[in-house]
Amino acid sequence: MLTEPDWEARSTAVVVPPARPRKLAKVPFVELAEGRLQGVVSSGSDIERVYVSQFTAGDHTFSCSTNNNRPCGGLYGDDYTCKHLDLLMDEAVVQFGGERIARYLRIDAEGEIQHGGDLIRRTTWKLERSSAAGVFARFLRHLSYLELPGTAEPLPELQWFPATQLPSAKAVR
User: Fold this and answer.
1) Which phi-psi region, left, alpha or beta, contains residue 15 (left: φ > 0; alpha: ψ -120 to 50)?
2) What pLDDT tens digit does each residue of the chain (173 aa) get?
3) What span, in angstroms and rounded, lies between the C-alpha atoms of 30 and 142?
């Protein structure tokens, strides 16, 4: 069986460990993709409802809606974030680190970043409604991997990161 350092040595993907361990109950999915910090946030009032929240790099827009594109009722005005966006930014800082989030979203972030509010306050944000479908579909696809049995064999749908060298027969045993 391969040890993790062997796997990392063969991988062409950079493995970035989380800045700190985080709990997944409130914000089960956080990612930096497509020029956005985006994720899924659980509703505080309805166990069957989730929100898809997004911050866009560059133009500094945000969006929050239910997974079926109903607008978040907590967005008051065009430049105030809701609690779902605040939770997403907080968890992103835990997952990726404040400096990395600031670089990705192109926020001028001098000084220490303790939580997401530090980043939200350092720029002017504007509401721009965007579709939740793509982010929610990615979340559901990630959830489907949890249902697969544990194996050391490669999964074909995860082969977008090819190994740089084949494992030796000794390492595979």
Assistant:
1) beta
2) 445 556 566 666 666 666 677 778 899 999 999 999 999 999 988 888 999 999 999 899 999 999 888 999 998 777 789 999 999 999 999 999 999 999 999 998 777 888 888 899 888 999 998 889 899 998 888 888 778 787 777 777 666 655 555 555 454 44
3) 11
Whether 63 contacts 53, CB under 8 Å:
yes
Residue 119 makes CB contacts below 8 A (sequence gap 6+) with 89, 93, 98, 101, 102, 105, 107, 109, 113
Contact 62, 126 (CB under 8 A): yes
Tracing tokens 């109903």 back to the chain, one arrives at: 70
| Whole-structure pTM value | 0.76
SS3 3: coil
